[in-house]
Amino acid sequence: MTPKIALFASGSGSNVENIIRYFSGNKNFEFPLILSNKPDAFVHERAKMLGVPSFTFSRDDFAEGHKIVSFLKEYDINFIILAGFLLKISAPILETFPNKIINIHPALLPKFGGRGMYGHHVHQAVVEAGETQSGITIHYVNEQYDDGNVIFQAVCEVLPEDTPETIAEKVHALEYLHFPKVIESVVGNQLK
Ligand code: GAR
User: Fold this and answer.
1) Other CB atoms closer than 10 Å to residue 10's CB: what's the count?
2) Residue 135: pLDDT over 90
3) CA 184 to ligand 1 center in whole angstroms
């Protein structure tokens, strides 16, 4: 069975683009759609460029869940990847996709996770805490923010001269390198 993977994104979507490019030409993985909660997110521009349909649902639709579940079922989706998606995943979605929703977080969880900890806010907090390391965490999603079982982490150095922007660059580099490979391995193993 070829897995059909939905990508959820709220912002720029550079990870979405990187994932789709990594798997392009690979017939063993399909990415039939991108969902967002923001109609003006740049991920929609990338989706057009990549030729992948993208759709926006409201915050309430994501919170209620059933409309999203029906929509994903229409597309025969069996995995969900959160790539810069900022809303909590509600119970109906979690129950329909047990252990099949994966998130990437731009820090070394359990540090710098939880509500309000996304994108720039995370890197700002890392600088303010005087950390010497940051990195990425790829984890299964549960009903709490940034709390599910960790699948993979990778570390980057944080130097005294680093700013939230330079940390974001280092973290993005780790994300681009590792996230597609982790998806390939986790989804591939689950289907064996
Ligand atoms: C990524 O760094 C991702 O780890 C982070 O948002 C960024 C999205 O960038 N996710 C979170 O902060 C989730 N709590 P992108 O839109 O360019 O892929």
Assistant:
1) 19
2) yes
3) 19
